[in-house]
Amino acid sequence: MKIRTRIVHSCLIVAFGVGMTAATGAQAAELEVLHWWTAGGEAKSAAELKKMLESKGHKWKDFAVAGGGGENAMTVLKSRVVSGNPPAAAQIKGPSIGEWGAEGVLSNLDEVAKAGGWDGLLPPVVSKVMKHGGHYVAVPVNVHRVNWMWANPEVFKKAGVEIPRTWDEFPAATEKIQKAGFVPVAHGGQPWQDFTVFESIALGVGGADFYRKALVELDQPTLKGPTMEKVFTTFATVRKYVDKDSANRVWNQATGMIINGKAAMQFMGDWAKGEFTSAGKVPGKDYVCVAAPGTAEAFTFNIDSLVMFEQSSGDVRKGQQDLANAVMSPAFQEVFNLNKGSIPARMNMNLDKFDDCAKLSARDFEAASKRGSLVPSIAHQMAVSAATAGAMQDVVTQFFNTPAMKPKEAADKLARAALTK
Ligand code: GAL
């Protein structure tokens, strides 16, 4: 992160301020919350978070930084922390939680976690991500599944083809869809979206063990090997079936192409479902959710979570604890995730109000966990450090935008990028 020195300096200033102005007796506080939930379904979920905080008597100060995948938000966050003015809470995920924890700028949530019994409520795969050095420093709002394919059944019907279940079935189906006048794959040409599609292909072509070895353990021979070449070859096939206007298209516009029947399928995590839901579409009828080809038995997880930054005001600290508590409540986990498309992070929740896609996700999460095929999403900052993921994402995007690049060359480059610290 290379911001340690400056952060330590700014923390000293903050700490000095605590001594001088330590508040007594908690009152309503204004909490600034950084997030990037600005698309339809996302914004509805963020509004629920705001409502929940305000029901505890605090004030929500919205710090929304648009940009799917959160890259813009993370850039803005860094400059705010470096200047000694961090927000009270921020949506930060995966190994980045530990990176911020190591900077010594995060609040310890152990007390709230202990009182709320979080250890018993969260699956270990989730609680592990929320801790730094054995202490809770983050609270999870959900579990997203990334390896989904969102399909418009009407388009498939009109083209006279079945939804492909394997990557081998994919080219024949897409060819017919194109001939029938539809866009086979709705895609937005942005690096994080390219990487999202790529990881689902890696999972489908190579399986969970290959995925883990290559994209989590960063094993050099696996990254450079023949299976990775095949992954890039398949990625190049997908590129053939994306429309020419895809450059820079935001992800929810791509989802819109499935909703309005212009395109057949989109490879995207289940925040896409939030878009279908807010457009009033019904799963199984207007659209279908199926695992990306070849990945029905596996699950790439992406856990959204909030961290709290150390604050000098006692009222704000109390507000942070209330926020953390509220996020873990069953009521919040239900309403937030009904809008967001994800499933609750808490175990043993009643899913009656959830749709079939969410129920399938919950079942597959558990089954994959037992099978050993539950893997962290690299494109959504769950698998490796932000620096490493960023370097690898650059290679994937470069390949996608450079038809002349050979899969072997791309695999070699990916392996080199994986050495980035
Ligand atoms: C993911 C995030 C989701 C969703 C998506 C698109 O990284 O975990 O909550 O917001 O980006 O913005």
TrEMBL record:
The keyword Transport applies. Keywords: Signal, Transport. Belongs to the bacterial solute-binding protein 1 family. This is Probable sugar-binding periplasmic protein. GO terms for cellular component: periplasmic space. Gene3D superfamilies: Periplasmic binding protein-like II (3.40.190.10). Residues 1-28 form the signal peptide. Pfam families: SBP_bac_1. Part of a binding-protein-dependent transport system for a sugar. It is found in: Periplasm.
